[in-house]
Amino acid sequence: MTRRRAEPRCLAFAFAAWAALAQAQQTAPPGGLTVQTRVSLMQSWTDNLRLVDQNKDAALITTVSPGISIAGSSGVWRGSLDYSLNGIAYVKSDEASRVQNVLSANAQAELISRTLFVDVRANIGQQSASAFGLQSSPTSGTQGSVSSLANPNQHETSTLVVSPSLRGRLGGVATYDLRGDFTRTDVRGSSLGDSHGTGGSLRINQANAGLLGWWLAATTQQVKSVSAPANRNSSLTAGLTYRPDLEWSFTANVGQERNNYLGSNTRSGVTSGATAEWVPTPRTRIGADFQRHEYGNSHALNFEHRMARSVWRYSDTQSTMIGNTGASGGVRTVYDQFFLLFTSLEPDPVKRDVYVRNYLQSQGLSPDAVVAGGFLSTGPSRLRNQQLSVTLQGPRSSLSAQFSRSVTSRLGDNLNPGSDLANTSHIEQRSFSLSASHQLTPTSGISLIGSRQETAGDASSQSTQLTSLFANWNARFGMRLSGQLGARHSRFEGFTSYTENAVYASLTQQF
């Protein structure tokens, strides 16, 4: 049963990061840190709050969203944080009020110059418990991670990754990178998907390597879920890297690994692989990676090309996932596309983060709108993900198209208790999305967003389809005040089908 209160463990990192960065602002030199606070008020009406086919529950929904964005570099650290606390209240409905959190944070601290570093990543957003369960659209085109509809299949999911690292030299022979990895995933209102992981790695590279260089790597990882046994993996690998010039790079590796991914017993096997990368220009990157594992091979094929006003991307990856799907595996967002597109316009990644978020808000587009949301899971699974995306930008218009196909398969004897993979051997998810925006005047514009998500399992009954359409008008009324008017139509087909229509209006005041 879903809890109707703010989850302290989901908020802990947000508040800690907020306090730490606020303190950094007080000691930062002028221009070293940008802090922008805001508050948004949205009023919406839906004709189907509870997402049912009959006896629809129309309701008025009020959402108040104070938020903060922090970006910059100051002293020993650099990074960005965007957090909002969304209070949702219902009128003409007995649905209980709720609180949702949205967080995206990425920071690096250099505690000892060129020696001791700490990388921190954190995210909070909405995740579907079941790929075959009830699916719903976000609140509006600009709030991709906020859902005000009464969908019991959605849970607030938070992920925290902390990676301290120690770097140095071993005489004049080699360099080393000793790294720890600590992860935690919490799902609000459910134990399914909760996990914590610990691990570490040591990589030694030949110093001043020229045409040919060697490296050694040792890794270990353990991920423990609440409802499943711990999964462990350890490996020792040696490799050679060949760099004939600045554009080409080739690597071959071989090693030994031990894991229990295929069941409760630990197995040992030989691992080997090869990697190639070609970077003919700063705007183009092509890469291929193939690795052999005893529990199943993996690969990654990537193509990325950036032009003056467009970005083209294709990726095909196959890997082993531990726990929830959707958080990785090549999934991209609208923010990712424009962050790459504006590389030449703003080379500094911290300043570019602020620029991209302001641009997307002015265009009425959601920065965290993803191609596919995935689902909650426990043990290891095999994920094959293919994605094609194109983003075009004109003087007053932009167009972003994305296609994604992912196949998640059960791995070995691990039945992933409680998740969808306990009832089907594989889950295929396909997603199509198209976003278009046009600037009507220097202070106003329109945007149209269309998306479709399809899910299928082994049985014919394990099939869902969600089609969503958004139409938005957005305007800036002053230096720090902006607004949006919009409408939404959704149609879902599955075990429980429904149609839903909504209109909404919002104001956002920045301080």
Describe the protein in words.
This protein is mainly β and 511 residues long. It is built from three helices and 22 strands. It has one domain (8-510): Maltoporin, Chain A (Beta Barrel). It is 8% helix and 59% strand. The chain has a 22-stranded antiparallel barrel. The relative contact order is 0.12.
The biggest sheet, with number of strands, parallel, antiparallel or mixed sense and barrel status, is: 22 strands, antiparallel, barrel
- What's the CATH class label? Mainly Beta
Strand % is: over 45%
Mean pLDDT: 84
Task: Compute the number of structural domains.
Answer: 1
Q: Which structural class do the helices and strands define?
A: mainly beta
Poorly predicted ranges? 1-11, 13-30, 327-331
As a percent range, the share of helical residues equals: under 10%
C-alpha termini separation? 38 Å
Please tell me the CATH architecture by its name: Beta Barrel
SSE pattern: HEEEEEEEEEEEEEEEHHEEEEEEE
Radius of gyration (CA) equals: 23 Å
User: What is the strand tally?
Assistant: 22
Number of distinct helices = 3
The shape, in one word, is globular
Task: Kindly identify the CATH topology.
Answer: Maltoporin, Chain A
